[in-house]
């Protein structure tokens, strides 16, 4: 199994490389798997009926939702933990603290070490396309398998310094911020 990535030659419009063509990598988008398909496969792998698996799935979802909205970090077996967080503006005076300072509510997922290791060891296949959409090269990864750790954005898992090829997933990790910088709790 391999992750599929495309590198497309695009005209960069801003920043250091403005007005030049550069190969920009992004994940190939896969189709979403329906809950029904996941339940069917989980039932098959576990040897329980689909009805029992559906009941367990629904109950687990309700428990996770209830506990997470009470402020708990909730374990997702075999995957990691999830919790809710937020981004908010900071203020200098306690009398200025109000709910409208909250700019975003977030769901924060922290993967298990096993899941990060699995991702790090998965090959990456890159297909390169020129600006006309013609395939010009295929590459299979030989990188160090660095996995970004959103909980500690300065310490990638797997060594080395990774690059962001899938969009901005990070942000302020709760270490303060200025008057207009987001904070996360």
The strand order across the widest sheet is 2-1-6-7
Proportion of residues in β-strands: 25-35%
Number of separate helices: 3
Nearest-integer average pLDDT = 82
- Which term fits the overall shape? flat
How many strands in all? 8
Task: Report the radius of gyration as a whole number of Å.
Answer: 21 Å
Give me the strand/helix succession. Answer: EEHHEEEHEEE
Derived from helix and strand composition plus strand pairing, the structural class reads alpha+beta
* Ends distance: 37 Å
Major sheet description: 4 strands, mixed
Give the low-pLDDT segments: 155-185
- Quaternary status: single chain
Helix fraction bin = 10-25%
Describe the overall structure.
The chain is α+β, with helices and mostly antiparallel strands. It has 3 helices and 8 strands, in the order E-E-H-H-E-E-E-H-E-E-E. The strands form 2 sheets. A 4-stranded mixed beta sheet has the order 2-1-6-7. Strands 3, 4, 5 and 8 form a 4-stranded antiparallel beta sheet that branches. Helix 1 packs across helix 2. The longest helix is centred in the N-terminal third of the chain and has 20 residues.
């Amino acid at each position: 199994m391999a992750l599929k990535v495309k590198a497309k030659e695009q005209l960069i419009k801003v920043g250091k490389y403005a007005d030049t063509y550069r190969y920009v990598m992004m994940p190939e988008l896969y189709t979403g798997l329906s809950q029904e398909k996941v339940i069917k496969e989980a039932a098959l792998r576990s040897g329980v009926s689909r009805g029992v698996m559906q009941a367990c799935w629904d109950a687990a979802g309700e428990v996770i939702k209830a506990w997470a909205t009470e402020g708990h970090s909730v374990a997702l077996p075999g995957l990691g933990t999830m919790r809710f967080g937020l981004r908010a503006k900071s203020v200098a005076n306690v009398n200025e603290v109000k709910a409208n300072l909250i700019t975003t509510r977030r769901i924060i997922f922290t993967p298990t070490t096993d899941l990060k290791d699995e991702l790090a060891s998965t090959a990456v296949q890159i297909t390169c396309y020129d600006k006309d959409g013609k395939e010009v090269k295929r590459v299979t990864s030989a990188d160090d398998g660095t996995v970004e750790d959103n909980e500690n954005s300065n310490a990638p898992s797997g060594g080395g310094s990774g690059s962001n090829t899938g969009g901005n997933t990070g942000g302020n990790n709760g270490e303060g911020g200025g008057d207009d910088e987001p904070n996360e709790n």
